[in-house]
Glycoside hydrolase family 127 protein
Amino acid sequence: MAPIRRAASVDPADVTIDDEFWNRWLETTREDLLEYQYEQLEASGCLENFRRTADGADGGFQGMWFADSDAYKWLEAASYVLATRDDPGPDSDLRRRVDDVIDLVAAAQGEDGYLNTYFALEEPEKRWTNLNMMHELYCAGHLIEAAVAHHRATDETSLLSVATAFADHIDDRFGDAIDGVLGHQEIELALVKLSRATGEERYVERAQYFVERRGRDDRLARELERIEEIAGYDPDDGGVAADAREAFYEDGDYDGRYAQDHAPLRDQEAVEGHAVRAMYFLAGAADVAAETGDEDLLARLERLWEHMTERRTYVTGGIGSSARGERFTEDYDLPNDTAYAETCAAIGSVFWNRRLFELTGRARYADLIERTLYNAVLVGLSLDGTAFFYDNRLASDGDHHRREWFECACCPPNVARLLAALGRHLYATGTGTGTDTGTGSDERLLYVNQYVGSSATVPIDGTDVELDQASGLPWNGEVTLDVDPETPTEFSLRLRIPSWCEDASVRVNGEPVSIAVDRDSGSGSGGDGGGVDNGYLVIEREWINDRVEVTFERSVVPVRAHPAVAADAGRIALTCGPLVYCLEGVDHERPLHQYRVETASAFDAGYRDDLLGGVVTIEAGATVPELEEWDGELYRPAAESARHSTSVTAVPYYAWDNRAPGEMRVWLREE
Amino acid sequence: MAPIRRAASVDPADVTIDDEFWNRWLETTREDLLEYQYEQLEASGCLENFRRTADGADGGFQGMWFADSDAYKWLEAASYVLATRDDPGPDSDLRRRVDDVIDLVAAAQGEDGYLNTYFALEEPEKRWTNLNMMHELYCAGHLIEAAVAHHRATDETSLLSVATAFADHIDDRFGDAIDGVLGHQEIELALVKLSRATGEERYVERAQYFVERRGRDDRLARELERIEEIAGYDPDDGGVAADAREAFYEDGDYDGRYAQDHAPLRDQEAVEGHAVRAMYFLAGAADVAAETGDEDLLARLERLWEHMTERRTYVTGGIGSSARGERFTEDYDLPNDTAYAETCAAIGSVFWNRRLFELTGRARYADLIERTLYNAVLVGLSLDGTAFFYDNRLASDGDHHRREWFECACCPPNVARLLAALGRHLYATGTGTGTDTGTGSDERLLYVNQYVGSSATVPIDGTDVELDQASGLPWNGEVTLDVDPETPTEFSLRLRIPSWCEDASVRVNGEPVSIAVDRDSGSGSGGDGGGVDNGYLVIEREWINDRVEVTFERSVVPVRAHPAVAADAGRIALTCGPLVYCLEGVDHERPLHQYRVETASAFDAGYRDDLLGGVVTIEAGATVPELEEWDGELYRPAAESARHSTSVTAVPYYAWDNRAPGEMRVWLREE
């Protein structure tokens, strides 16, 4: 089967972001976050583990048993930063620091290509004996991702050669000597990345093996039974064995859903289990489908996506509602005050959705990326970049706060590597399917998926096209795009119509292009070279040096959740454009549960540059109960109680918990 | 100071209940519950502990370390049953069984009067060394209560002599040899009971010591520090030490509130800590106030009662909202789905409230007894008397069910002893305070506190008055009372006006008595010999042989909770007369959270004898969301969603979980 790739994202190295909203986050990432995380790599003993392994030391491993991955995620993020710098030359401080860490990593690698400092230091004889819990392949996957990023940024092979040696080691052993999969996915998508970077097809075959092998026998179940023996842990002493029992057993029986091991992927009906594992798994499966041209597998992934987004996703885009097992639970089980919605799971969702977009060219995946980025991901990071949410509640009584670091420090470096490569999600090229536009299957397409101020150079069929975007998002829907090809070129420009957009107007070189947007179907009609297809606003023409101006109309929209969501019954959430809003205690006199928001009256949305780094706040009419009449009573006939008018101030959800600690609620009672 | 007793409850032995609603519960208690619990005393090893102690055995104690109290509670309940039987003669099966258990208990008593099978069998050298957790005085208190009940029922002293010997032992040692109080109260009220039964005043003094001593130093705190040593428990192995740490420590500091040990009672501002302990403590304190004539102490108790009922009581009368520590938490913290509201705490509240009524003659205490009995207590018992709720949720997703027994089996025998002596709460005599009625302070009063079909002989100033009551409660407010003194006697009949009563009409021998009831103030005005005082409808006259007919008007009333109660925001609870209602999943097609009850339209309340042993159900108009419009969407603009009309069926809260398991909610969303 021929590979499937209906769209190819433009490499972040070819995109330079300059955006009023995002600049601050990216600066935080490039400067503070990378520096801070490097300090944590030293402080936590992560780098020391590599040093001691290189020195042939015995014992003394520090941190979680998968701490190596922290170093790799840092290397990946740092490589993306190097790639987007004007001068990533070998003399820069960051470049030198990256090289130093790579030297450490390379020195810790074994003669046979194996590389894992936990096993090297603590249990060298137990390599590959506990795939379920010990994350060796997970760490390998992050090494590979870092290596590919570093190679792209620098053209160097210092880390890539380490990664290929380890990948070869893995490829040699798995399938024959070791027939099984690992608990925490990551190796799958990493091997496809490595294949694309090296041209080595067997890495795709090995990734396919890992994707297809899962759920086909009880290897993980059997491993769990002998976990004490193989991992050397006392099950009564907490730790890994206890974690595994907690995660994998339901009412005493093995429950493979935790690691998506309950059935072969092709038979799975819903996204289940540990949300980060699920996202990495499905991203890897999407990569395998792309490379092998497996339309059946792609159809299964699209079905799983629909089930997830229609039944198991918070309004923020967050996923995995339960802290126990960090997992998906049941359809419509989306509690707010105990929402887990791990930051890493949201990041994993972005990874999976980018792949689904590339496989299908459908706007809905890019649309979910937008919602997830602005809400479920950004909330994970404080405005100053120094504190992090691991889990993201949608309601808090005031006891949930960002922390400076975590023993299991997966989220902060994951945020860093996502934001450092944010440019990857903006533009893509592809060829048309010709189903709706009637322009034939060979049309050339240029997708604009995210509205982020930026400049980029995008090759369309051999011609470099310079793009220059200015965007008012998320505070307004004004977007300007200058399109300047090397030589005049005909192609179809596809501008994603956001799901929050109520109407859109377009002008090309000042001339209106008439387009009717049907929000529900993602389709519409137009003329003058304009149209709507697959969720995109389409402008097909010969581009010379043209300016496209788009206004995506947006207003404050209170949304309701499906009636089956018990936690949101009788409540609305305020949204405005891509942003979900919340109330914080600091802005209100009464406890938040006492307010009812008037959805029938007008909302007042206005920009305040003095607040939270500059945000649009929403003022809404509301009522609160009269308190005076309750003198000394706890229960009264309902007919006797009255309310009076007041207002509430909502702020973007991502910005909460950056002021005085207090209550927060996304879902509000409605008047 | 002279004793305070504004009212004296009529002894349950002098009251014969014959009531359509209560007969089934009392039969269940007399027959099945007592039999079932006796079997549990055998099966759990409780009686065997006494046998082995009598035999001088070593070790082998079975059950919780306070299991002796289960036997005592059973003896107390059985004695109440004997007292109300026409023929409690020595040949009855129950009488023989009671005597056998008493023989066992007596044989287990030590030479010095000490009696506790846990310490006798397991740690004889550690008597009285761990008052905090080991419940020796708690068991002693239950022994005393049983002994007094048995003595009243039979005139025998077989158990009373055991109790007095133990009480003397305790009185000898405490205060001097042992200066301290115990963790779980019960001895206080028991010693006052014993004093009243024996005329021995020093038992009151010892009770007073226990009441006043608490909260005055850190004896309990010091004991906790050495709990491992003195109780022989491994703190890392769960059990008593772990329980104590869990209960008594807050953020690492000793928190005496758990055992009401944070301050002297006279300085306490709120009812705190373990709810059962608090109720037993306050009941004992009320007894001490009564005997010592301590008006200051009484005023403190009334203040604590007001704080509890205005801020920390469920609409059912249940108290103690948190499973952690089985305790009171903060003002207005009344979660529904995690409500603890232990059955024993509700029973303790009835005990305390009866004492407060006797001390004050105020209807509000009898009113809370009514609410608590019909809702928070009865819900603890299945309709067939064989399964029990220990904790009582006010909302359940379907996973909360009554169980047949508990390792800590405090609630079932507590229900039994309360119901077996239900007659105690119906009638009382007293003398008037003369403040409101203007009839002078020496008037003779006869209180009717609970409307339960019954006959009783009540002495008023030396004249026996025969009372014969018929009551339609809880299904309607029709009450008929025949008053027939031996000789014509003038006294003031006081009929409690229930707080749920919207209006009342009274006829004496068919002649209307005009009365205006003011629900809020508990007062009102009247003529023709009628009036309202202290929450009572007053009829003063010379009684010859007269019939009083009262109608307490009641309707379905949706009530709201104070705005500070976050759990009930936007919700109403349906009440009708003394009953709180709930929705059960079994009666509804949709998940319960989807219904909104229309409070503006009429409710349809009707008796259904085919349901739940015969209940009045409430049919209410309601709406549910349209589901069709939600095809494949999880969030939609609020303006687009619609609802349609339907109805809900509410059943009395006490009767829930007696049919197919499923959801239950007391607090309902409002249309």
Observations:
- Chain B touches chain A through 40 residues (CB under 8 Å).
- Residues 22-43 of chain B form the longest helix (22 residues).
- Residues 608 and 615 of chain B are 6 Å apart (CA to CA).
